[in-house]
Amino acid sequence: MIVALRSLDVGLRRALGGSALPTGELFGCIAAGGFFYGVIMGSFGAGFDERLLLALFSGVKVPMLLLVCFLMTLPIFLVLNSLLGLRSDLPDVVRAVLAGQAALAIVLAALAPYTVLWYASSADYAAAQLFNFAMFIIASGAGQAVLRHHYRPLVARDPRHRQLMWAWLLLYSFVAVQMAWVLRPFIGDPSSAVQFFRNEPLSDNAYMVIIRLIGQEMN
Amino acid sequence: MRYWFAQLDSILRGQATHPSRLQQGELNIQADGLLVMLTALGMSYGFCMSWYAVLRDDPQYMQVVASMIKVPLLFFLTLAVTFPSLYVFNALIGSRLSFSSMLQLLVGSQAVLLAVLASFGPIVAFFSVTSTSYFFILLLNVAVCGLAGSLGIRFLLQTLHRLTDALYVPIVLAAPEPAEAAPPDSAVHAAAPGPLTRIGRPESRERVRVVFYVWVATFAVVGGQMAWVLRPFIGNPNAPFTWFRPRQSNFLEAVVESVRRLFQP
Fold first, then answer.
1. Looking at the partner chain, which of B13, B133, B263 has a beta carbon nearest the beta carbon of A215?
2. Do B131 and A204 touch (CB under 8 A)?
3. Rounded distance, CA B261 to CA B139, Å?
4. How far apart are CA B244 and CA A66, in angstroms?
5. CA nearest A85 in B: which residue?
6. CA-CA distances (angstroms) from residue B148 to A145, B213, B225?
7. Residue B173 scores a pLDDT above 60
């Protein structure tokens, strides 16, 4: 038991700050941390009823969100790295990017108890959405910090890495916002049915929804 | 097949256009196999962008076929239209680049453009499948093509500068510092410029600058207008499928109109 805890401690410290873990373990962190937070997130308003199913759905969706966005941004990221002459650093670059995501997932998992406390304190759906959004923002901040930590030696070798780091962050965020919108519901309005996806007719993408909301506010 | 892929890879990594390889003033890109790869890359992007027409109430499956044919066609036609003027202007400024070198240069830049475009394919397909706003998708595709085009053009210009340097002034490239004498990291990266890295002598570059910036603008305008002529690539949801739309308006007007319509309720 002590040995298990100690190796978990070593693994987490390496994932969060030291040299990057092997790629397989990083994927494991993303899957495990994401699943854990997803289950907690989806347990809003759940008793021992079918709403527990939503918790399971969300547990699947959070790692899916992170990993699918990573896979979608990977081709263009690899091509841009090649074009800027950074091909030789590719394994380190990919590991840095994965380490950032692993850190996001681990910090999310660490913040899960706060979400439990929030859900126990308030039944307001809108407030729950905002709280989870805040947890994601904090975890993204930590993920970004770890990404930059792993990129520091790369940037020291070649300053062009910095451009690509920001390009990847921008692209990943662009895709992730839309992916989160498509994969909703994560928390689940208690007045709506339990579904994996919202079955309403295809609403527009997240950015058009935001543009229209802003347009309505301004009119 | 693997050889063609390796060719594409060496262009993207900058090996094919490394200054040491260009010293004879000739490129060594095997255009024929690469053209097959470029067609495949173009078709894959056409496939991705056509998904907007498929996942809606009235699916237009023919749009998939049409886009897969039109995207490679667009790039080859743009090449055909702009190549004669590039060759002539290049000759006018006194460059001794041969016809085949010029062709290889353009095929190389198309390779960069189509590789970037194809690698954006999954993202474009994802947005196409999950969006209902036609103008958003249109602008997304324009932005992606614009980025791919600008990287392709940057490759063209950098390779041209390097070829011109090689021809005009006999360059004895300083041998990279031997690994023992310099910190290993800097030696590795000093000797590995990417295909888009600026190197070469400023004074010889000055000579080609004006002509090629004019040509770059020409390429951008021709590419955009060629895309407009070959439309539709995505398929307006309010219009039935056709292979081509009637001649009207132009590319720039359409982009401005799309931005305007994006913000309309």
1. B263
2. yes
3. 11
4. 40
5. B194
6. 30, 17, 16
7. no
Question: How many C-alpha atoms does B143 have within 13 Å on its Cβ side?
Answer: 12
CA atoms within 13 A on the CB side of B12: 28
Do the Cβ atoms of B57 and B33 come closer than 8 Å?
no
pLDDT at A170: 94
Distance CA A121, CA B232 (A): 54
Best B37, B51, B119 member to test A by mutation, with max A CBs in 10 Å, is B119
Residues of A in Cβ contact (< 8 Å) with B185? 157
Among candidates B12, B121, B133 on the partner chain, residue whose Cβ is nearest the Cβ of A83: B12
Task: Provide the pLDDT confidence category of residue A166 given band limits of 50, 70 and 90.
Answer: very high
pLDDT digits (tens, 9 = 90+) for A43-79: 887 777 777 888 888 999 999 999 999 999 999 999 9
Instruction: State pTM to two decimals.
Output: 0.83
Across the interface, of A83, A202, A212, the residue whose CB is closest to B196 is A83
B130 touches chain A (CB under 8 A): yes
Q: If DSSP states are collapsed to H, E and C, what string results for B38-75? A: HHHHHHHHHHHHCHHHHCCCCCCHHHHHHHHHHHHHHH
Instruction: Specify whether the CB–CB gap between B187 and B177 falls below 8 A.
Output: yes
Please choose, from the candidates B111, B121, B117, the residue with its C-alpha nearest in 3D space to the C-alpha of residue B50.
B121
Tell me if chain B has a CB within 8 Å of the CB of A7: no
What is the CA angle A66-A72-A77, rounded to 5? 105
